[in-house]
Amino acid sequence: MTSNQERAKQLMADSRFAFMNGQNREALNLAKEAIQLASKDPDAYQCAANACMSLGDYDNAIDYYKKAVKLDTGNGNRYFNLGYAYASAEKAGEAVKNLAKAEELGCTPENTVQLYNLLGIICFDIGRYNDALVNLSKAEAVIGIDMDIMRRKAIIYGMKNEIRKGLEVCNQMKLIAPSEYVGYQYAFKLLCQAKRLEAAKRELEIAAKYSVPSMDYYMDCVTFELQNYGNDKNRDHMKKALALLVKAMKTLKPSVKEVTETYISSAELWLQLEDADRTIACLNAALNPVSSYNLGFEIVPEDHGEIPLTEYDIEEMIENDRIRIENELGEYGLEELAE
To answer: What is the DSSP string of 138-184?
Structure first.
């Protein structure tokens, strides 16, 4: 006959399998059965707590994790899980207390990285930026190079207004992942914060050459035009911003959220240009983004008049012409043509 302990082990295994497959309610029910059969096994409470976390039931998750800790007080991973649950429930004081205990006892490498990451986030949220940087550096020491950690460090340096250090982190991100826009994006934001608009413009130009096109890139180009408008009040910047949004919609395969945000941004620009009809049209398109996009809604109608080419368009045209001529004339054709 199968003992209660063996049956509980099987229930816990089934609970973990259900949890991995996103069947969180089933995982919780199986864990509760296991607890009834093995009330002194911390892993049974762990299974129940994990399911509660995925269900967003942080209070019950905390209760289950507490019971797991009580039954296994020398295990740092138990304290880490409890600290994570407290952090999810926005109880920073209790979270830090348990994470400190987890660090003291030691955790698995994965949990250690998450522990320092979590402490970094908590310190950031309460304005302890130096402590946040220390914890993120500890996480880096365990995991090595990590883009998400570097992104957070760049944000913190921005909050501290330490632009040079922030740019150093951005340069590291660009070296590691030159085709991703994120490194260029945070460098652009830091340079705008420092009012170094020419340097910010160069950052966008470099990103256009090396990174994969993204909505973040086009939105930052729009931001740059708006910053220039704030300086000189030249309405052409608004028109260039509209042209960038049009290009983004044609170049990318935007998500529904991105389509909606683009239509709303377009409405704001048309409002600045004092065109009520286009403002209303863009807002209406934002109410039904999928159908508007599929039906080919035009942010700037063809009959609306000329929208000036942006510097980004001109650079792209020059590059396309260079490639076309190179393809037609061969590797040395450009030199011969120049001669």
So the answer is: HHHHHH-S-HHHHHHHHHHHHHTT-HHHHHHHHHHHHHH-TTSSHHH
Interatomic CA distance for residues 80 and 107, integer angstroms: 8
Cβ atoms 197, 224 nearer than 8 A: yes
Q: Is 253 in a helix, a strand, or coil? A: coil
What integer best gives the mean pLDDT of the chain?
88
The token pair at 39 is 């009330």
- pTM (global) more than 0.70: yes
Burial of 91 (0-12, 13-18, 19+ CB in 10 A): middle
* CA dihedral of 61, 63, 66, 68, whole degrees rounded to 10: -70
**pLDDT interval class at 307 (50, 70, 90):** low
Amino acid 97 reads K
The residue written with tokens 């039931």 in the block is 57
Phi, psi (5° rounding) for residue 57? Answer: -95, 75
Q: Which residue has the tokens 């065109």?
A: 275
How far apart CA 250 and CA 218 sit, in angstroms, is: 12
Confidence class of residue 318 from pLDDT cuts 50, 70 and 90? very low
User: How far apart (Å, rounded) are the C-alpha atoms in residues 306 and 300?
Assistant: 10
- How far is 222 from 215, CA to CA, in rounded Å? 10
Mean pLDDT for 163-188 is 95
d(CA 51, CA 21): 11
- Write out 109-124 in H/E/C secondary structure: HHHHHHHHHHHHHHHH
